[in-house]
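Lab notebook, bench 4. We co-purified these components, and the gel suggests they stay together. Before we commit to crystallization screens, I want a quick structural picture of the whole thing.
Request: model the full complex, all chains together.
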Amino acid sequence: MDGEPLIRIRDLRKSFGAHEVLKGVSLDVHAGEVVSIIGASGSGKSTFLRCINVLEKPTGGTMDFGGFHFDYEQGARLQPSAAQLCELRARIGMVFQSYNLWPHMTVLENVVEAPIRVKGEKPAEARNKAEALLARIGLAEKRHAYPSKLSGGQQQRVAIVRALAMQPRLMLFDEVTSALDPELVGEVLSLMASLAAEGMTMLLVTHEIGFAREVSNRVIFFDQGVIAEDGHPREVLRQPKSERLQQFLHRVLHEDAYHAAPLTEGAAP
Amino acid sequence: MIEKIAIWWEGFAPYVPGFLHASWLVLVLSLLAILVSWGCGLLAALGKVSRFAVLRKASEFYIWFIRGTPTLIQIFIIYFGLPQLGLRLSPFVAGVVALGFNGGAYVAEIVRAGLSAIPKGQTESAQALGMGRWQMMTRIILPQVFRVILPPVTNEAITMVKNTSLLSTITVVELTLYSQTIIATTFRPFEFYIATALIYLVMTSLISQAAGRAERYYARSL
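Here is the predicted assembly.
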């Protein structure tokens, strides 16, 4: 890919105590790329996503994004300040597994809160934009409802819209369909697919291999805290090079996970 | 029978204005002390989760001291003890300060429990949208905490109304001291203490009622 990447990450590391979760991850993401991150649980993929907007503070490495240059190395001068972190996060949208809508605010209030309080938009203007976004996902008539009155799929779509209302340059999705009932997964994925089609730069940690194959134009396989494979979905998913990725794909693609789980000796009743 | 009631009322009537005045004083004392206790409680609760060790230690000491000593002794320290250090407070001010400080320690523990009841995802989603600490606290976290802590905070408010009777010991002429002075001249403790109790009961019941309404209002988002 040509030109300056939107985000450049070099040798990113993160330890929790003595346990090193990320062991040096380097990644360039260009504007318009849709990158799916797959990997077994504990491979560090969620931690990596959370390090990008510094919900977890990396313990080493550097990051460039939108004019910011952060150096997370111990004792480095270019550690992000509190104000820089707010500005960085205002430009990177993030959606979580558990939606995390604010229960004491209506749908509309959830969406306009950050544009008004963080970006300083005029309330009327923020409201108009929010209503347009809600109309787009078919939830305009729910704008005065509280999150508890919405289904999981609706809540997650509102959470996506809440992030979009900040007009982010980059969207991070952290296993956003994992907490949903199976019949509600589709509506969230199709919203994400339409964002991808509009050219939104997206980084998503997902277990939806089908979605990774159809929608993303790049797939990254995380294994034991490093990027083990990185490439076009067709290459990575159809012709996995490493045995670990082959095993992983075999496990997640097996539809009947319960019967597919190998019985270890002595485990049978 | 009617004659008897009339005679009883004649003995009682002269004290009605005095009772009203003393009740008003209880209301004002309680209200001010409750406000002070919320201020102290919020500060101490935030102090306890502060990044700064000094604030954490100070909050812990405050809560430990207040909860481990009798309220009456705390009132005495502030009213009788502080003048020795050159700080002389009127009985009214000393009463508000002592009860407010006292209530604050209990409110602090309630707020702390309320804070820990808010899921981590709530702060994370606020941070992820670029909110600063202050915005996150005032707009996202504390409004949710208020709903959770409303019932225990109501109990504290009721305790506060009842605790104002302790101020009779430092010459604040609130309901308890007022009824004592009347009884000293009328020698009719039964009626007057019952009347005093009923007035307290009306006030505490009104607080429960108001809190019930507030709870239903906050439950609208559930």
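The interface with chain A takes residues 119, 121-122, 124-133, 135, 139-140, 143-144, 147, 218, 220-222 of chain B (CB under 8 Å). Worth comparing against the SEC data before the next meeting. Chain B is about 80% helix and 0% strand.
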